[in-house]
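Protein fold
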Amino acid sequence: MTDSMKNGNSLSFLSHDINELEHSNQANLPRVTVVMPLKGFGEHNLHNWRSQITSLYGGPVEFLFVVESTEDPAYHAVSQLILEFEDYVDAKIIEAGLSTTCSQKIHNQLVGVEKMHKRSKYVLFLDDDVRVHPGSIGALTREMEKKPEIFIQTGYPLDLPSGSLGSYCIYEYHMPCSMGFATGGKTFFLWGGCMMAIIAQMHADDFRQDRYGLVSGLKNGGYSDDMTLAAVAGAHKRLISSPPVAVFPHPLASDLNFGRYWNYLRKQTFVLESYITNVNWLMNRALFAFHSWASWGFVTPYFMALIHVVAALRFYNKPYSFEETPYTFGGLVLVTILAICTLVELVSMWNLTRIEVQLCNMLSPEAPQLSLASYNWCLVFVAMLVDNFLYPISAVRSHFSQCINWSGIRYYLKDGKISKIERTQRSKDMDPVFTDLGGKHLCAKKVLPTRSSFLGSLLRSLAQWHQPKKFDN
C-alpha cells in the first residue's frame, strides 16, 4: 500500500491497482449480500453499522439487518440509520422470529440467506461489533474472484481495550488469532465476526441442496457458526483463507467488567462441547487438552518464580552469612530467564499490535486514527496470567455443565448439538440485560442514533459516488 501511494495511487486503501477502480471493471463486479445478525444496542453499534453500510464497493450490494423481533432495541436504531441512508444504499431489516433448533445468531443468519437477492454470488456475514474498512468488501470479493478454490474467507479482530482488566483479557485471548496471517492466507479456523462464502450462481447448490450438510449442520442443533463451518470445510478438504487486509477494529465496551469477561470466556470454551461429526469431536477434545495444558504451562513458571523470589528475600533477611548457610542461585537464574522471555513476549505483542494499528489506519484513512498510546502493557501482562489461569477452569466447567447463557438465552447441549432452549421473560421494571463485550442493552427503551457528523456526510457522498442507489429485485 505504501509503495502504491508513492506511485501516485491515493486510493490504495481500496485497491493496489488503480486500474481496477475504472468504471468498466467496477461494472462487472459480482453482487454481494451482507447479512448482519443483530441482538441489542450498545455504545459502539451505531458507528460499526455506519462503517458497514458505507462501504465503497463498486458492485451491487445489499445489506440485510436481521433481528429476532421488532422488540429488540437494535430494530429502532437500525431503522433510523436505514432511513438516513435510504437514497444511497440498498438496506433492509428482516424479522427472523425465535430460534427453536439452533442458536439465535445462526437462525438469523440462515433467514438472511433465505431472503438474499437471487443473483447474489457472495454472502458476507458480519457481527454488529465489527468495524469494517471502506474497501473491505471489495478486498474480500476480489480475493474470492482470483482464487475460486476458496470456500470461506475470514478476518480477525484488533481489540481496542477500554481500560478494564476484563477488556485486556479479551485482547490477550484474541491475539493468537493473528497467527492465521503467518500461513500465507491459509488457515483452519474462523472468526464468526467476519465470514464470506460463495452461496449463489454456480455455487447455489451449496446452500439450496445442503451440500456437505452445511445448512443442516447449522440448523439442526448448531451452536457456533464459525466452528460448524470450519468443521465442514475441514471434513471436505475445502480452503479457508484469510487475506492480509482482513484486520478489523473491535472496540470493547467502556464498562466491560470482569463478570462479562468471564461469561464471554465461558462461551468460548463451551464452543468446544459442540460438534457435528466424530472427527470434529476428536479435534475439539484435542484442542481442549492442548489449550488447557498450554495455559497452565504458561502460568506455572510464574508461580514457581514467585516462590524462588520469596525464598531469596527470606534468605537475605536472615542474619546468616553465605558461609554458614548453603544457598543455590539456580532458581534466581531461572527467574531472570523467565523475566527476559516475558519482556520478549510483551515486545512482540506490542510490535504485532503496532503493525495492525498502522494497517487499520491505512485502510480507514477517513476514520479517527488508532493509537498504541491507550494500551497499558502492565495490564496486558496481568491479563495474560489471569486469562491463561482461568481458561482450563472455564473449559472444565463448560464440559460438566453442558449449558450456557448467551445474551439472555440459555442453551443446553446433548451429543454436541443444542437440545433445549430457555428464554426468560423480563418485566419492564427490571434492570436491563447486557451482552458481554459490547455492553449492549438487550431489554431497554428505544434508543435512537445521534445526528450524523461531517465524517458521516463525507462517507455518504462517497458511497453515492461509488455504487448505484438501488438494484432491481
User: Anything to note?
Assistant: The domain at 31-466 is CATH 3.90.550.10 (Spore Coat Polysaccharide Biosynthesis Protein SpsA; Chain A).
